[in-house]
Each structure stands twice: as structure tokens, then as C-alpha cells.
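Q: I'm writing up a methods section and want to include an example of the input and output format. Could you take the sequence below and give the corresponding predicted C-alpha cells, formatted cleanly so I can copy it straight into the document?
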Amino acid sequence: MTVSRETIIMDDKGMRRSLLKIAHEILARNEGAENLALLGLQTRGVFMAQRIAAMIVETEGVTVPVGVLDVTMYRDDFRNKMKQPTAKVTSIPFDVDNTNIVLMDDVFYTGRTIRAALDAIMDYGRPARVRFAVLIDRGHRELPISADYIGKTIKTQSNQDIRVRMIEAPGDGVDEVSLITFDEGEVMG
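A: Here is the clean output for your methods example:
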């Protein structure tokens, strides 16, 4: 696909504000940090979870556990991809049973990734509650799933995509979110 335009829709300051807003909303809804754990979806959801955990330490003086979840093999579309999927690390350094877990991902699109994440979590135990935080909600849901915490909502068209870059991600080198518009006739899959 040929990119005809890339527009920055969130810079580093906007990203920090959105993550801080999410952190405060999580604490308010959970009534503090007690029995709370964050679970970031590979890859940028992990960085998001780590940053929000650091913000919770700054705000509450409490460290909440952070885990890493890879949902590659739980996706309902992994067999339809042209190339063989590569599973990444899953690391959950806390007891899932009876814990209030907040799943974190950078972009919310069809809902299939979060459905896969819910399936994956249940293989590790039965949480007290699972909530979902996302930096960008771009719409186009295919499943009846919604986010509990949203940094920013950007309604996209079929020829558009959202690209999140985070300093921690190899090759990104910057904190920003951009809206990618592809040439007419080319549709995102």
C-alpha cells in the first residue's frame, strides 16, 4: 500500500496526558491501587502498562504488578495470515485469581485482540474483574466489546490506519501517534 499522507494526531505531551488520565481513572474506579494488576498486550501495550504503573507509584506511592501478555495463538485469525505467526513472551508475575486486572493495548480496532486476551487470561486463572484501557480507539468494532478507559477516540475510514510510536519500542525513537491515509482504492485489512 502506498501512504499518501501521515498526520501526527498526538505528540509526546499529548501521549503523557492521555496515559495520566487513564491512570487516574483506573485508580478512581478501583478505589485506589489495592488488588490491582496491569497486563500489557505485546508490544506497545506493555510499554503503556509500565508507564501507567510508574504514574500510579507517583500518585499513590504504591507499586502495582505489571505483566506481559501475548495473544498470538489465541487470535481467531492467526491461521488466515499469509506468514506463520511468531509468538512473543507472556509473563504474569502475579496471581490472576481474584485480582482486578486492567488489560492495556495501544490501539483498539475490531475487538478481536481483546477477545483473544480474555481467552488467554482464563488459562491463568479467574480474575475478580477485567477491565480494558486503550490509548487510541479507532472504531470499526466487529465484536461487542468496549474499552473502560480511552486516551483518545479517533474515528477512521477504511483507507486509514493508526500508528503508535513509543520510545521504548525498537525503531520508534519517539512518542507519537499518527493517522496514516492510504491512496484511494487501497483498503486496510
